[in-house]
Amino acid sequence: MGNLKNVVLPLLLAFSLLHLPFAKSVWFFNYHIHVRNDLPSRNSPPHQPNLLLHCKSKKRDISDRPMMTGQDYTWDTKINFFRTTLFFCNARWVGHKSRIFDAFVAVRDEDRCSEYHSSCMWSVRPDGIYFSHNNATWFNEYPW
């Protein structure tokens, strides 16, 4: 009887965890985070990036990414078991402004980013950093 309990209880626990509402996103979904430079290129030196983007999480540092107008930078992540996955970025508009923003927060983004190809879309613009869950409607979530 003791051996049966040692086998059945872990199996029941594993089976029940797979049926939790967030289990699908925790273990199987790959989220794509896109940050696009939509800043104007005027007043910038020719052939020089006008946006420096530095993104990181607790475990992964993507480092500085110099971006020209129109460039898109993308990386992927999965949500950890505790749903605490977080990526934040420092967007520096060269010669103008700088802003830190949360590019991916598991509890905030697991639903809203799953609508459009599991993507979180960000656009850095002259008046702030915009978010879109469908690449059509944009919201200024982080004004400069």
UniProtKB/TrEMBL annotation:
Protein name per its UniProtKB record: S-protein homolog
Signal peptide: 1-25
Keyword Secreted in record: yes
One Pfam family per UniProt: Self-incomp_S1
Organism: Hibiscus sabdariffa
Family: Belongs to the plant self-incompatibility (S1) protein family.
Source taxon at top rank: Eukaryota
Keywords assigned by UniProt, alphabetized: Secreted, Self-incompatibility, Signal
